[in-house]
Amino acid sequence: MSAPQSAQGYVCERKFSGEVTALDRVIAVVGAACAPDDKFAEGVVNSIYFDTPSLLSYSEKANGDNLKTKLRVRWYGRDDALPKEVPVFVELKRRIGGARDKERIETTAPRDLLLDAPFEGSELRDFIMSALKDIDIPSPLSWFPSVLISYSRLRYYDHPSQSRVSIDWDIRAPRFNGHLFPIGHPIHLDSMVCEYKNDLGAPPPWAEEMRRCGLRFGSFSKFGECVSRLASFEQ
C-alpha cells in the first residue's frame, strides 16, 4: 500500500440531469464551449459506496437532509484494463446544502479485492477503514460496502466560469450487498448527468442551453437513484 495523501476543501456542485437520449446534443454543446480535461478527458468511473445496516447515507439523501455523508472507494478504468495493484481514492464526502467537503486518501488496492471480494465479507470493509484510520468517521464500525456504481465520463474545463465539468452516462450498479438487498437485481439507469463544480456555484455561460437539450437543473444522485431501485425490490 502506498503512502496516503489527503485533500479537502469546500466546492459548489451543480447538476443537470435527464434522459440519455439527450447525450449527443449535450456533448456537442459542452464540447463547443469547453476545453477537454488536459489529463483525463474520458474514462470509466467505478465507486463502491459504503452504508450502514439502516442505510443512513441513503436515507440522508432520500430525505433531503441538509447534512449528508458519503463514504466510498473510487478507481478509474475498465475491469479488463486494470493493473494488479490499482490506484484508488478512499473518500469521505460531507455536504452542507449545496457545498461539498471531501477528504480523500490516495492509495492502491489489489485488483482482485476490488473486482471479486464479496460485499458481505470483511475484506473491503477492513481495507477502507484502515485507509481512513486518521479521519473522523461517524460510527466507523457500522459502515459496510453497499453497492458498486460504474459509469462512463467525459471531463472538461470551462474557463469563463472556472468550472470543472463532467458528462456521465451508462450509469449502472452491477454488484451490491446481498445482506442489505437480499432480492436486489443489477441496475442500469437510462439517465445522464452534466455537472459543473466551482468555488461560488456560478453557472457557466452555456448552462441555459442544457434546458433546451431537455435536461433538468437540480439534485441528482447516482448513488441515491441506484439504491432507491435496489430497495424497491424489497417492498
The major sheet is characterized as: 8 strands, antiparallel, barrel
Q: Please report the distance between the alpha carbons of the first and last residues.
A: 41 Å
Number of domains: 1
In the CATH hierarchy, the third-tier topology is known as mRNA Triphosphatase Cet1, Chain A
Strand order of the largest sheet: 2-7-6-5-4-8-9-11
Low-confidence stretches: 1-9
The helix-and-strand class reads alpha+beta
At the first level of CATH, the class is: Alpha Beta
The quaternary organization reads as: single chain
CATH H level, superfamily name: VTC, catalytic tunnel domain
Shape: globular
Which architecture per CATH? Answer: Alpha-Beta Barrel
Determine the number of helices (DSSP H or I, runs of at least 4 residues): 6
Rounded to an integer in angstroms, the radius of gyration calculated over CA atoms is: 17 Å
Order of helices and strands: EEHEEHEEEHHEEEEHEH
Secondary structure: number of strands: 12
Q: What fraction of the residues are assigned to beta strands by DSSP?
A: 35-45%
- Which percent bin holds the helix content? 10-25%
**Could you tell me the mean pLDDT?**
88
